[in-house]
Design a protein that fits this description.
alpha+beta, 5-stranded mixed sheet, 4-stranded mixed sheet, elongated, binds zinc ion
């Protein structure tokens, strides 16, 4: 076998002939290549065979995976062809996505890395800017969808129980609507926006036949979601998403805690501690200090509390009956969603009575809000949609929105969410996913 033929395998290039391997004066390795005969003179967009138009902008380079310590590039002519549908376009090349500056193998390695490591690690190791990472994962996701049969892929096949949610990013300026398959735990659909038109888009992608298979839809209490679901998926039972209901209760506990903290400070539980921005700074002491620190103890699930946080709760139980009752109401509601069937529904009604007649105004109010979606909560308790699942997908996507902050369009965040929480996870180039070799 000739050396140049071996190089194609080493680089992971398919349908590509290597003409020469040279060193650039700056130390990079340059692989001179051309597409194999069957791959030449095809439209870069639709891959239809077309007549050659001209030589385009001459030779071009695509960044490939590093060779040892050196940067490596694939270099080739980049002629243009005339497509009957797309006009004059740069011809297709088998080693890269149309219009991309990096090879398929490079793209694949970046996508694999970004799903597993920090922003800084990916940028530094691959020697690319974070914006470039964004462009790469967006096109890897596009390619993945194409391989799996089109714009929505086959992600929406055979679903029966789904969850719909919205996620904010860029400090609440932009929103994504996400759909989760409850039976597989996979994120199956993500789109920019959070309104009727966005959700209509989902049901358009799903189509009437597949919508008819949906039996349960869980969502928060947003009316735009329930109205669109009722119209497009009329036979499905609508369930309340426990994740959001428990979140409301946590917010109510937070309000009660903040009021107790302010009351303690007003009663003098502070001491002067220098000046800050021209104003006297007053640090909390005693009860106010304890209430300030109790925030996480009140919010966390009791099974994951530290000893110190447990002591803080004991202190609240002994000294702040109103806050303690708010906390117990919240925990009661959370426990409710771990129960199923008749017992759970009875417990739900007992909880509503408890909240309505409690001494905590925030929970009297919350009881009204929860009773308003009572039938949907009963549906959740009857059909047992996994809250843990929705919550875990939610939490993980919210973490992604932080690293996606440097991306300038929502597409890279959507791609990142789908590649890490969807069914098609990125694979390292040139490895067999089943044997890890
Ligand atoms: Zn074309």
């Amino acid at each position: 076998m000739r050396g140049t033929t071996l190089w194609a395998g080493v680089l992971g290039l398919k349908q590509t002939a290597i003409e020469n391997v040279v060193f650039d004066p700056d130390g990079s390795v340059i692989f001179h290549v051309r597409p194999m005969a069957g791959q030449r003179h095809r439209c870069g967009r639709c891959r239809r065979r077309c007549p050659r138009y001209d030589a385009g902008a001459g030779r071009r380079r695509w960044r490939s995976l590093d060779h040892g310590l050196a940067l490596a590039f694939v270099e080739s002519d980049a002629p243009r062809v005339r497509c009957r549908e797309h006009g004059v376009v740069v011809a297709h090349v088998p080693w890269a996505v149309h219009g991309a500056g990096h090879t398929h193998t490079f793209d694949a390695q970046v996508a694999w890395l970004v799903a597993r490591s920090s922003k800084a690690t990916v940028s530094e190791l691959m020697r690319i800017a974070w914006r470039t990472v964004g462009a790469i994962i967006a096109r890897v996701w596009d390619q993945t969808l194409t391989e799996h049969g089109g714009p929505a892929g086959d992600l929406l096949e055979g679903m029966t129980r789904i969850g719909i949610d919205e996620i904010s990013y860029r400090r609440g300026q932009l929103y994504l609507t996400v759909v989760v398959n409850h039976d597989t735990g996979h994120l199956v659909w993500t789109h920019e926006g959070r309104n009727r038109a966005t959700l209509d888009q989902f049901f358009d992608d799903l189509g009437e036949d597949r919508a008819a298979l949906i039996t349960h839809v869980s969502a928060d209490s947003a009316t735009w979601i329930s109205e669109v679901v009722a119209k497009r998926c009329p036979t499905a039972v609508q369930c309340a998403d426990p994740f959001h209901v428990v979140k409301w209760a946590n917010q109510a506990v937070g309000t009660v805690r903040a009021a107790a903290w302010r009351a303690a400070r007003a009663a003098g539980a502070t001491h002067k501690n220098g000046r800050e921005q021209g104003r006297q700074r007053r640090d909390s002491t005693g009860a106010a200090r304890e209430l300030g620190h109790a925030r996480y103890a009140l919010w966390k699930n009791p099974e994951s509390l530290t000893d110190k946080q447990r002591q803080r709760l004991d202190w609240i139980a002994a000294t702040h009956p109103l806050l303690w009752e708010a906390y117990r109401l919240k925990e009661g509601l959370r426990k409710l969603f771990t129960m199923r069937g008749e017992t759970a529904i009875e417990a739900f009604h007992d909880w509503l009575t408890w909240a309505r007649t409690s001494t905590v105004p925030e929970f009297v109010h919350l009881a009204g809000r929860i009773a308003a979606i009572g039938s949907r909560i009963e549906a959740t308790l009857t059909h047992g949609l996994s809250n843990a699942l929705v919550e875990s997908v939610n939490t993980k996507i919210r973490l992604l929105t932080r690293i996606a902050y440097g991306f300038h369009t929502p597409q890279p965040l959507i791609a990142l969410a789908m590649l890490t929480r969807g069914p098609y996870r990125p694979q390292l180039p040139g490895r067999d996913p089943h044997t890890c070799q």
